[in-house]
Amino acid sequence: MSSIEQIQTFIAVASHGSFAEASRQLALSTSAVSARVQALEQRLGVRLLQRNTRSLRLTDEGQRYFEHCRDALQQLQEAEQALSQQGVPSGLLRLSVPTDLVMAPFARLLAAFRRQYAQIEIEVHLSDKTVDLIRAPVDLAIRGRDPGSPELIARPLGQAELVMVVCPALYPANMEGERLPLLDPLNIRQQLPPLATWPHSEVRSQHLGLTRQLCLQGQGAALLPLALCREDIEQGRLQQIATDFALPPLPLYLVYPNRHQQPARLRTFINFVLENVTNYPLV
């Protein structure tokens, strides 16, 4: 068995956090995957994984070795692609984006990118969880508010304007807005003293899309990105409430690991997004 096979197997196990999933990805038996990792540990003279019947995690040595091996393997793959594709960027690019991202401009951006770089495949994962870009099999992410770990590079994509909206039936001309319960999915009322005394809605969620639906159903006033509810305001389904204080903007970032060597497909996508963010605004 070659050391390359052992390393590839270890990378698969570390990436997926599971011997069973690595065995499916590699089309090997679980026992074969385990044997390769054990042989690698014996050859290196160090334990790379802590494992029992219920959990699996990388040791500190395993985490460092995983990062070095993954980067080295990506460079080898890049070298092969440069020869086989004559320098044309190619391969699979995995993106993690929040479920509340306004999808229409994002879809137009992806379509424009694919028209220019047809050899690059794109796999989009929708998740509101902060994906670990160092360990997870994801190349880059779009994130709002907090870009995450200092080990990551965060490139700003703009700032979403926040507005306060309400179902028109709850806000007749003779009602003061502060009497309404408040839906605050971004938890920003603590930054805004004028909102401290507003009552909470009895139905609450941190999901922007669900909060919009709750607002449409009359469950209170809501603090939401304008891009998410602009059409509702224009068509009269929601009414914007004017405030005598400024609402903080919601920053959006393109986030990726801080590595010395990046695959050409990743560099190409990052540059394309940053160059075209005004043509396909995501906020």
TrEMBL record:
A Pfam family the protein falls into: HTH_1
Coiled coil regions in record: none
Protein family (similarity comment): Belongs to the LysR transcriptional regulatory family.
Entry keywords, A to Z: DNA-binding, Transcription, Transcription regulation
Transmembrane keyword on record: no
Protein's name according to its UniProt entry: LysR family transcriptional regulator
PROSITE patterns linked: HTH_LYSR
Domain HTH lysR-type: 1-59
Cited InterPro entries: LysR-type_TF_proteobact-type (IPR058163), LysR_HTH_N (IPR000847), LysR_subst-bd (IPR005119), WH-like_DNA-bd_sf (IPR036388), WH_DNA-bd_sf (IPR036390)
Keyword Transmembrane: no
